[in-house]
Amino acid sequence: MKPLRNGNVIHDEPPRKRFQEDFESTPLYIAVVTYINYGIMIVFGFLRDFLRRHGFEKTHASTEASDMKDFVPLYASFESFYTRNIYNRIQDVFNRPICSVPGPVIDIVERQFSKSGWMFEYTGKVLKNVVNLGSYNYLGFAENDGPCAEASIESIEKYGVGVCSSRKEMGNLDIHVKLEKKMAEYLDVEACLTFGMGFATNSMNIPCLVSKGCLIISDGLNHASLVLGCRLSGAQIRVFKHNDMKDLESKLRDAVVYGQPRTHRPWKKILIIVEGVYSMEGSIVNLPGILELKKKYKAYVFLDEAHSIGALGSRGRGVTEYFGIHPREVDIMMGTFTKSFGAAGGYIAGSRALVEHLRYHSHSACYATSMSPPVCEQIITSLHIISSTDEGKRRIKQLADNCRMFRQGLKKLGNIVYGNDDSPVVPAMIYAPTKLGAFSREMLKRGFGVVVVGFPATPIAESRVRFCISAALTEQQLQDALDAISDISDLLQMKYSKKKIA
Amino acid sequence: MGFDFKLFGKKPTSVVGYIEWLYFIYCITTGIYMLDPWERTVFNTCLILLLSMSFYTAYAFLPQHIFAMLSHFGLMDT
């Protein structure tokens, strides 16, 4: 494969493996079983709602006050029906309270649920040393001792914990300036701006970049923060099929040729919004394809690297390094510090003009409190470890090895696994809601904490379990996890895949 | 809730365990795993009633129906 050429710079990355993404289609019988499950649950849901309405059974859900019974109902949509009758029955697998640092092993507070899952109480016991397969702890920086924690403690002794002001007033500390400089160097861009909350970074900054009269073309599976930001901006939104370059190209062509809807004037700006790694699918964006289209049709690209910064690339610089693309090709790079750096907050990086514009116009920069100093110090120390020490290199390599080993192991077992071979997020399909609850409970009995996701985070018939691989997990723990998953998949008949892996 | 299943993450090999596992898979497939025990009883009762009525009807009336069909299509002497 010939080396990639960007302008006059040739990057000598080793030949990239073929872009390997996998979305095996749902087997027919399990789709039928899933719909049967939902059908029976809906029938019994109606029965229970009938009993509750006519007083045969006590209602625990929220209902309107008795003097408002004749008003338009507040709780009549499918969402509340689903929550009352389907979600609540397996509620013990969601929202489990944790009482330790979210490292490779965690302690979970035990809860005892009543019938139908309406009420629970704490038994007082704590389940210790549950292997953590669900936290976004990609490089293992969620620690309560070590150099990062020591540096954070020193910064608390110097600055305290609260900043007590927004960034524009008195909240611009020297530690923020230092963090932004270090982050800009790490990403190899001109400048960077940081915010206290990752969700707010997307939702509050997209309205500053686009407005009415602009066009946003966003991927179908974008995160809720991006969708909210797009809606708040007032721009026209069009959606292209997930990672499908042909669909994106046809939408771009239509936009350039036909312009705005009624007046046919040209669009002021066209912004393509994609994510680096999609957390529900485990797929990686086809960045070379998108940049080719961007140059051809003169659009801007907004890349949300929430899950990929620190986790992809040989030096942990994200999806641009993974593809061998220079970061200055992407106009706006956004990311969060929550996943790989073990802190909280988000950043937007790009050219100096962009960052200065955002510094003065962004809602988050004007009104939100700036990032807390110990959190900043945690990020600065972890950046230093990732970029300049052997420990960082070891962690990045450990993460890549763990991902590969776990994903291959899971595929060999026969489960359907979505997504790209190199992504640190591994979703395995479960489909039926009963198996969702049973899988999570059985894994907890065996000492593994997993995150299962169903509707509305995923399509209704495609529930899955999402494993997040961490560099802090040892190979032995992952092998034990694979053995447990194998036994439970046999028990629940979850090995749907028709592909034969040697 | 489905807590009354005592399975511990392995497919059982003994005969009694195997039959319990078959019932577990039946509960998972039809969706009654997630229901309360009394709802499960209601569902199982309805299902058994329906199946027994179908089997009785088949036993009592199927030979006559098959006879009538075959003689209508001329494949058998009346």
Written account of the structure:
By secondary structure, chain A is of the alpha/beta class. Chain A is built from 15 helices and 17 strands. Chain A has helices at residues 28-53, 78-87, 147-159, 174-187, 198-209, 224-233, 245-258, 287-297, 319-323, 352-361, 363-367, 373-388, 390-413, 433-445, 475-492; strands spanning 4-6, 9-11, 21-22, 105-113, 120-132, 191-195, 215-219, 236-240, 270-275, 300-304, 332-336, 346-350, 419-420, 425-431, 448-449, 451-453, 463-468. Helix content of chain B is 67%, strand content 0%. With 78 residues, chain B is an all-alpha fold. Chain B has helices at residues 15-30, 37-72. Chain B has one domain. The chains are: A alpha/beta (502), B mainly alpha (78). Chains A and B meet through helix 1, helix 14 and helix 15 of A and helix 1 of B. Chain B: InterPro entries: Ser_palmitoyltrfase_ssu-like, SPT_small_subunit. Chain B: Keywords: Endoplasmic reticulum, Lipid metabolism, Membrane, Sphingolipid metabolism, Transmembrane, Transmembrane helix. Chain B: It is a multi-pass membrane protein. Chain B: Pathway: Lipid metabolism; sphingolipid metabolism; Sphingolipid metabolism. Chain B: One of its GO terms (biological process) is ceramide biosynthetic process.
